[in-house]
Write a structure and sequence with these properties.
Elements: H1 2-19, E1 24-30, H2 36-48, E2 54-58, E3 61-64, E4 69-72, H3 80-89, H4 91-96, E5 99-105, E6 121-126, H5 129-145, H6 157-167, E7 175-178, H7 179-184, H8 189-195, H9 225-228, H10 239-244, H11 256-272
Parallel strand pairs: 1-5, 1-6, 4-5, 6-7
Antiparallel strand pairs: 2-3, 3-4
């Protein structure tokens, strides 16, 4: 049964790669609350060399107003067959387009997959680990107040496996984009990143609609840079989450300041026991 599934998976990969063979395809993979949509909207501006916005075609498929870019959002959450159905439904739009962007969230890929067509350029989205966790924590708390649950933003061993994979994905042929570096633009970070794709147009996007905006302020307003890079100082840290940093190599994704922060929190929690 496994061999049959693997064969069908490979056929799907061949089909997707064939449909997109004449397009510039970009696969973007990051954890939820990492700045995935901020990157996609900024990168789309760069591709089209002007301000762009997305219009929904159907479901989780969108296109820019001139049709040059088609965006397939979070395709791994819908499955391979749904992804292929999306492609078939939008075949005429795809034929007219120049660029294809496929986003994956909370996804680990070590094998051939239809979500990553042949010749696609692969980009991993990274962000301060504590800021990702803080945003997920805050988002879940706010949703819980309204009676909603978001299990897809859990912070557990599986989350840390994905986090570690993303941070090491450069060894697997992915180009790393860092949200914090992009915000601060130290040493002309944005220019150097765009140069990797022979692009030069650098225009910050408006607040993302697809990602729901900021975990802390929603779509009401754009937080300033100082707020965005220090979210981890604004939440209460559960002991269970802190304990996860003590397992395996989970601390390796932290900056020096973050490590000091976590170690101090863990030490203080032990004193209270």
């Amino acid at each position: 049964m496994y061999k049959v599934q693997k064969f069908l998976w490979f056929l799907a990969y061949i089909y997707v790669s064939f449909i997109f063979r004449k397009k510039d395809v970009y696969v973007v993979n990051g954890l939820r609350r990492s700045g995935n949509h901020a990157f996609i909207n900024w990168f789309t501006n760069a591709l089209e060399k002007k301000p762009t916005t997305y219009e929904v075609l159907q479901g989780n498929v969108s296109q820019t107003s001139n049709g040059r870019t088609i965006f397939f959002n979070e395709v791994n959450f819908f499955g391979i067959m749904t992804f292929i159905s999306m492609i078939r439904l939008q075949k005429s739009m795809i034929a007219k387009s120049s660029f294809i962007i496929i986003s994956l969230e909370d996804y680990v890929s070590n094998n051939i997959t239809p979500f990553i067509p042949k010749n696609a350029k692969k980009i991993s989205i990274t962000r301060s680990s504590l800021n990702i966790i803080a945003s997920r924590l805050h988002k879940q708390i706010e949703l819980a107040k309204s009676g909603y649950s978001r299990g897809d933003m859990s912070i557990d061993a599986a989350f840390f496996n994905r986090l570690n994979w993303i941070h090491n994905s450069e060894n697997l042929g992915w180009l790393i984009w860092n949200y914090d570096s992009w915000l601060q633009n130290d040493n002309n970070y944005r220019k150097h990143f765009l140069n990797s794709f022979q692009l030069t147009f650098d225009l910050s996007p408006e607040m993302s609609k697809e990602g729901g905006g900021s975990s802390f302020t929603g779509r009401k307003n754009n937080p300033d840079i100082a707020q965005l890079i220090s979210r981890w100082k604004k939440v209460e840290w559960p002991g269970r989450v802190l304990d996860l940093f003590l397992k395996d190599n989970n601390k390796e994704t932290l900056t020096r300041n973050e490590k000091s922060f976590v170690e101090e929190k863990i030490a203080n929690s032990k004193l209270k026991e």
